[in-house]
Amino acid sequence: MKKRSFEQIGESLYEERLPNGLRVCVVPKKGFRSCCAVLAVDYGGAHRRFFLEGSPCETPAGTAHYLEHKCFDLPEGDRTLEILTARGADPNASTGPDMTAYYFQCTEDFEENLRLLLHLVSTPYFTEETVEKERGIITQEILMGEDDPGLRLYYRLLGMLYERHPARERVAGTAESIREITAETLALCHRAFYAPGRLALCVEGDVDPERILALAREAFPPEPQPLPEPDFGPAESLLPLERFSREEAEISAPQFVIGAKFLPAAQGGEALRQRLVASLAVRTFLGHSSPFFTGLYAEGLLNLDFGVDIEYVPQAATLTLGGESRDPEAVLAALRKAVEELAAQGLDEERFRRAKRASLGARLRALEDFESVCFALAAGLFEGYCALDSLTMLGNVEKAECERFLLDALQPERLALAVFEPKKEG
Amino acid sequence: MEMSRLELMPGVWLNHLRSDKFKTACLSVSLLTQLTRETASMNALIPYVLRRGCALYGDMDALSARLDELYGTAIEPVVRRIGEIQCIGFYASIPEREFLPGKEDVLRPACELLGELLLHPATRGGLLLPQYVDSEREKMLDALRARVNDKRSYAVKRCVEEMCCFEDFSAGRLGSEEEMRAVRYAKLSKHYRSLLQSSPVEIFYCGRAERDSLAAVLRDVLATLPRGEIDEEIGTEIRMNALEDQPREVTEPMDVTQGKLVVGFRLGECMEDPDPAALTVFNGVFGCGSASKLFVNVREKLQLCYDAGSMLDTHKGLLLAAAGIDFDKKEAVQEEIFRQLEAMRRGEISDEELQAARAGAAADLRMAEDSQGDLEGFWLSQIVRGLDYGPSELAELCGEVTKEEVAAVAQSVDCDLIYFLTGSAEESADEEEEL
């Protein structure tokens, strides 16, 4: 395997891409008991339409998530999770708009657990009966999300921003949409998207990288398989469909989220640079030490729940900022005003320098969490960059780039605001 | 990793865990005090008010500029409830110099800043600033009201409140809305002073610094900490049995699409000499994790719900089994929870179930050794209990727990209250008529 050293952070990385397209990367960690493995699939809730070997396919909202649930079934039984748990591993899986991931952390029997993880992801086994059996559980999970005001508010905003892009729909789908999912749907999507060419295995822990590579090689057929061509529809305007919405919900204080779309960069180094620029820009301009935040906090318009998030999905990127506020419209007005001042004066030099130092510290801290390191590595592999390059690249991000990003993404006509208010008494 | 414990000043202890594994060091300072309904809200508010500004860095702008300068050192207010002991203070995460340009040392300035925040708040006329107290009180009130937003944890909290309605434990981590609303700056300033004088202080550090050099820095930083008579008598009162012969039932309506059932138990006589390993393994067999009886039977076999699990409070001696369910499945799920517990009482625990629970508990504990946040929480809990062994030792003990010991815990457990958060308002109207 190819080894790269990252001296500044005291880490090294081993990587290789197998002839069948499977990417493998390993970060060895001496002195740690935990090992983490993430097997990621370049497939998520947003991949609803695609062409496979020339034929168009369309699948219901929630298919990728349903498939994640059913992947744990094997011809030999449906107790994979219990087997892993019984060995003391902590297995889990998650589906996002752009990626599905199967992962576990453990302290014992790592190889055996990894073998099982690779086996379950590479073995499609869907029967009408087992697929039907899961429908109730997934429906309950969807309903549980509907009782989560934060999640509902977020999707309300995405619906205001996006006209067609599937990023606007809940990853888990709806109770209605998942009714149409059959064993056949899942088998088709597994064949299309779980081809080794769309998979990445990322491991961190006190392991031998060559052993990991050997296990990965055993688990999949050696030849490449046909890959799907995802279709996200024609590009959308960067303007929102709807600029403002207000609804009532079972909550204690008004919650809001402000969002805007921006153009995601092409794959590779550009994509990593855009992520670094965007996150440093947002930290300097809207972070907890920005005058925007501290000013509104002192006025009692924001609290420590306030957060900013940037989500990248294929052909779409969304910047959101939100939290609780007694007057969300005042927060939006303050944001517009701050952007005006930014256009006139630029970012403060000293603040920018400090934000860069703070960002370095925050990135060091993030390296402590194996799971998030493996997820970041996988996302980087799918986008053509190495996540561990971010600490060195951060050093040369310039103030002007961050200003350009903010002034583009936060143009007044691009902003949308969604508000949930507590139900009126009686 | 060896834990070493050193008294820096009367009632101020440094718990030092030397480790080269991490990129950041962790340093926490906790003031320990008895949880009571009257003081819980004031205590909870203090670290948040202190975090607004100190004499040297008077507002959030100046403070966060300083933290950014220290490579994003984070110092966050922390309020915890460990049994009936309230622990308030700060948790700091400090980048290790090895990974910073020019190997700049930020540990010392970070300790100094922590000391400033704790001991030298922004004041006027010797009192905490009213605008900080008022604004943090309002935010705390928002936080207390926001409990309702997360339905699952809300249901769990309500169950505990009802269960322990005659005990201080029900005061909750942040106290009550009523007490919080009454907090004013003059009274809070006085309370803050007395807390500094009388609270035992536990400092936890995990990182690359040697104990004695860190101790020297901390002695400097805390030199002005006033020390009066230290309140050594703090502790948790444990109720062994249910309040009434039959489990009490509480049903509350809310606009939810899914019901939340929480069954609350007292751990019972086993709390006379609690065995942390047996309790942990018991919980693993019963409802913690995807190999547990509740997960397998309530969720997987009977398809009664999406989530089902149990949690323990081993300080207060509580066991809570919780499930998210359809409104009409309450009786069925409740019955199944009791059925599974009954089976455990009879010793019906398979080798696989026991092995999974042991392995799961041991793995969680061993993994905790790789996370500073987990280590800090584990050790603070051990210190409160007066125990001195680490996660690995407890992991070993979990590996040796027998079926009989698990069954003994199950036999000791006593159902106290059944709480149901339901969607239909009609049902609750019926309940009221019955009352």
Describe the structure.
The complex is a heterodimer of chains A (426) and B (435). Chain A has helices at 63-70, 80-86, 110-122, 128-146, 149-161, 183-193, 209-219, 269-286, 291-298, 328-345, 349-366, 370-383, 390-394, 399-409; strands at residues 2-6, 11-17, 23-28, 35-41, 49-52, 55-58, 90-95, 100-106, 199-205, 229-230, 244-249, 255-262, 307-313, 316-324, 416-422. Chain A is of the alpha+beta class and 426 residues long. Chain A is 41% helix and 22% strand. In chain A, strand 1 (2-6) and strand 2 form a beta hairpin. Chain A has 2 domains: 2-230, Cytochrome Bc1 Complex, Chain A, domain 1, CATH 3.30.830.10; 244-422, Metalloenzyme, LuxS/M16 peptidase-like (Cytochrome Bc1 Complex, Chain A, domain 1, 2-Layer Sandwich). In chain A, helix 8 crosses helix 11 (349-366). The model of chain A has no long low-confidence stretch (mean pLDDT 95). In chain A, the strands form 3 sheets. In chain A, strands 1-2-3-9-4-8-7 form a 7-stranded mixed β-sheet, sandwiched between helices. Chain A has a 5-stranded mixed β-sheet with strand order 11-15-12-14-13, sandwiched between helices. In chain A, strands 6-5-10 form a 3-stranded antiparallel β-sheet, with no helix packed on it. With 435 residues, chain B is an alpha+beta fold. Helices cover 44% and strands 22% of the residues of chain B. Chain B has helices spanning 40-50, 60-69, 107-119, 130-145, 151-163, 177-181, 185-198, 211-221, 276-286, 293-301, 330-345, 351-368, 372-385, 391-399, 403-412, 425-434; strands at residues 3-9, 12-18, 24-34, 74-82, 85-95, 123-124, 127-128, 201-207, 248-253, 259-266, 305-313, 318-325, 414-422. Chain B has a 6-stranded mixed β-sheet, with helices on both faces. The model of chain B is unreliable at 427-435 (pLDDT under 50).
Structural class of chain B, by secondary structure, is alpha+beta
| Sheet of most strands of chain A | 7 strands, mixed
Poorly predicted parts of chain A:
none
pLDDT averaged residue by residue of chain A: 95
Annotated CATH topology of the largest domain in chain B = Cytochrome Bc1 Complex, Chain A, domain 1
Form type of chain B: globular
Tally of individual domains of chain B: 2
CATH hierarchy class name of the largest domain in chain B? Alpha Beta
